[in-house]
Amino acid sequence: KMAAGEAAGRYRSTMSKSKDPSGLLISVIRTLSTSDDVEDRETEKGRLEEAYEKCDRDLDELIVQHYTELTTAIRTYQSITERITNSRNKIKQVKENLLSCKMLLHCKRDELRKLWIEGIEHKHVLNLLDEIENIKQVPQKLEQCMASKRYLNATDMLVSAVDSLEGPLLQVEGLSDLRLELHSKKMNMHLVLIDELHRHLYIKSTNRVGQRNKEKGRISSLVKDASSVPLMDVTNLSTPRKFLETSQFSTPGSSSMRETSLLEIKEDMELDPEENSTVFMGILIKGLAKLKKIPETVKAIQDRLEQELKQIVKRSTTQVADSGYQRGENLSQENQPR
Questions:
Q1: CA dihedral 264, 270, 273, 279 (to 10 degrees)
Q2: Rounded to an integer, what distance in angstroms lies between the CA atom of residue 4 and that of residue 24?
Q3: Is pLDDT larger for residue 192 or for residue 23?
Q4: How far apart are CA 193 and CA 273, in angstroms?
Q5: Cα–Cα–Cα angle for 292, 298, 302, rounded to 5 degrees
Q6: Which long-range contacts (CB under 8 A, 24 or more apart) does 133-137 make?
Q7: How confident is the model at residue 231 (pLDDT cuts 50, 70, 90)?
Q8: Rounded to an integer, what is the distance from CA 42 to the centroid of its chain?
Q9: Residues with Cβ < 8 Å from 201, sequence gap 6 or more?
Q10: I need a surface site. Which of 6, 45, 66, 333 has the fewest CB within 10 A?
Q11: Record's PANTHER family (predicted)?
Q12: Three-class DSSP labels, the chain
């Protein structure tokens, strides 16, 4: 009995101090295992039942007193639990959607890159087709420009077409005949320009002097004094050298200004290209420069210089003889044999 009393005291002290249910259970088990008497065990069992009953009554009273707060707390807890569960499910679904979007975006990015590259390729092909279409019209346009003596425009067109045919369009087999044709025309284009340059240098310039001489001859024939023989006035004749004189520019002796004046020469599509011989010869020189035939041009001018000067002398002699013969005829008709 003394042992059972000590065990019961330890049990009560443990119940009063310990609030851990597991510790209380261990204490009860220890008390029951140390007691040898069945009566003590029954007593301990009764105490436990009484304590449980008291705990149930206290719990019922507390539930009755705090029923509203407890109900609200339980409902709030349930609501919070449900929200947390729903939030977890939604977050899980959002993660899955994000992963799916990431995969789709990767696929779209590859597809967009492919479409972008295809767009660039198609644009390049369209540009090549437009260029081919324009180049096919070059022979006809070139013939028109040459017929109207728009040599600078013809040179630009020809050089650009040949560069395209021997560059980006080199692999186009269908343009082989056109490539050979335009290349041949480019190789012979400078011969036409050189002939035009010589015609303006030696023939057209002297023709202007001859026309001026004839006009002065007609004026002088009206005057009775036939002793005054009209002279060729070449002081105002426009020549390439005068075209490049420094007096025409703001800075005398400036070679850069001379080059700029040649670079600024352009064809006027509305005016006669041969109206101004100086500008026309500048256009011819510019065209020859674009054809990279300046050395051949210089050589041709040097080779034909003597021959052309002899022709000038021959034509001038013929003009002077014809003028003198006509003047003699006029004087003889006026009974002035002198």
A1: -30
A2: 17
A3: 192
A4: 13
A5: 160
A6: 135/161, 135/164, 135/165, 135/169, 135/175, 135/178, 135/182, 136/178
A7: very low
A8: 102
A9: 240, 281, 301, 308
A10: 333
A11: EXOCYST COMPLEX COMPONENT 4
A12: CHHHHHHHHHHHHHHHHCCCHHHHHHHHHHHHHHCCCHHHHHHHHHHHHHHHHHHHHHHHHHHHHCHHHHHHHHHHHHHHHHHHHHHHHHHHHHHHHHHHHHHHHHHHHHHHHHHHHHHHHHHHHHHHHHHHHHHHCHHHHHHHHHHCCCHHHHHHHHHHHHHHHCCCCCCCHHHHHHHHHHHHHHHHHHHHHHHHHHHHHHHHHHHHHHHHHHHHHHHHHHCCCCCCCCCCCCCCCCCHHHHCCHHHCCCCCCHHHHHHHHHCCCCCCCCCCCCCHHHHHHHHHHHHHHCCCHHHHHHHHHHHHHHHHHHHHHHHHHHHHHHHHHHHHHHHHCCCCC
Pair of tokens at residue 191:
């011969």
Residue 113 buriedness (CB in 10 A; 0-12 / 13-18 / 19+): exposed
| Out of 16-20, 121-125, 180-184, least confident range | 16-20
Q: How far, in Å, CA of 101 to CA of 25, rounded?
A: 56
Count of residues making up the chain = 338
CB neighbourhood size of 44 (10 A)? 18
pTM of the predicted model as reported, rounded to 2 decimal places: 0.49
Tokens read off for 50: 């009484």
Q: How far apart are CA 43 and CA 12, in angstroms?
A: 13
